[in-house]
């Protein structure tokens, strides 16, 4: 009957969920608690490079407190 497919369906859903969970966990552990940033568009790449220049690490985002006041004076 139709319910005979439920164990196989449960196994497939479980495997797909496990892969997503393992990916999430590895990225959190490997990047110091931050998820890996997606850089698909030029604007996202500019934000990535800005964070890399300001903090030294691309996965730590800082706002204005990360900038030096002397860098704006000409």
UniProtKB/TrEMBL annotation:
Record's subcellular location: Mitochondrion inner membrane
Alphabetized UniProt keyword annotations: Electron transport, Membrane, Mitochondrion, Mitochondrion inner membrane, Respiratory chain, Transmembrane, Transmembrane helix, Transport
GO cellular component: mitochondrial inner membrane
Cited Pfam families: MWFE
Major localization class: mitochondrion
InterPro entries hit by this protein: NADH_Ub_cplx-1_asu_su-1 (IPR017384)
Membrane topology: Single-pass membrane protein
Residues that span the membrane, as ranges: 6-26
Signal peptide positions on this chain: none
Keyword Transmembrane helix: yes
Highest taxon listed in the record's lineage: Eukaryota
Protein's job: Accessory subunit of the mitochondrial membrane respiratory chain NADH dehydrogenase (Complex I), that is believed not to be involved in catalysis. Complex I functions in the transfer of electrons from NADH to the respiratory chain. The immediate electron acceptor for the enzyme is believed to be ubiquinone.
PANTHER family: NADH DEHYDROGENASE [UBIQUINONE] 1 ALPHA SUBCOMPLEX SUBUNIT 1, NADH-UBIQUINONE OXIDOREDUCTASE MWFE SUBUNIT
Family: Belongs to the complex I NDUFA1 subunit family.
Protein name: NADH dehydrogenase [ubiquinone] 1 alpha subcomplex subunit 1
Organism: Patiria miniata (Bat star)
């Amino acid at each position: 009957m139709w319910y005979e497919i439920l164990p196989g369906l449960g196994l497939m859903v479980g495997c797909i969920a496990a892969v997503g969970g393992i990916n999430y966990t590895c990225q959190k552990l490997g990047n110091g608690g931050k998820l890996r940033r997606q850089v698909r568009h030029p604007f996202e790449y500019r934000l990535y490079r800005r964070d890399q220049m300001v903090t030294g690490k691309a996965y730590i985002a800082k706002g204005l407190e990360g900038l030096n006041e002397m860098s704006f004076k000409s």
